[in-house]
Amino acid sequence: MTWFGPKVYRSVVDFLAGLKISGIAVTSSAAELNKLDGATVTTAEINLLAGTDRIVRTEVVPLAAVDTAGGVFAWAPGAAAIIQRVFLDVTTKTTEACTIDVGVANDGTTLSDTLIDGLDINAATGLFDNITDKGVNGKSRQRCGATQYVTGSMASGASAGLVGNVYIEYILI
Fold this sequence. Notes:
Shape: elongated
CATH class of the largest domain: Mainly Beta
Number of helices: 3
């Protein structure tokens, strides 16, 4: 049994102790390491994100043809946030006349027009936002509390046939 000598025993002990590279333990999981496979980022780019959670994030929510307040969509960031941009990507317009409102509300079932007010989504498909298409009451940015929602609601008409997504750009505060 000379094949199971001290050298092999030491390799088994090292294996059970975990993976080390140049004497430094690797603490990342295989899934975390696989995320780096094919990444084309530089060390400087990674360092820009290190230690910060104040980055612009984007949430994608599908639009629904539901005529209740918050029925077109309702999304909560889960923490206080600044909503800086809302894009409505309408890929199929409504079959009847319809306007929608988008805004910050206290719950997911309340109509609000603080970001987009009275957007006609029956006239044409397209990409709309709270800067170019904000309407009378819409704003280019809005605070959203930790328990608040961004809602999309049918303001007039009927939302039947509506298809698309909303892209919400936000920063946690």
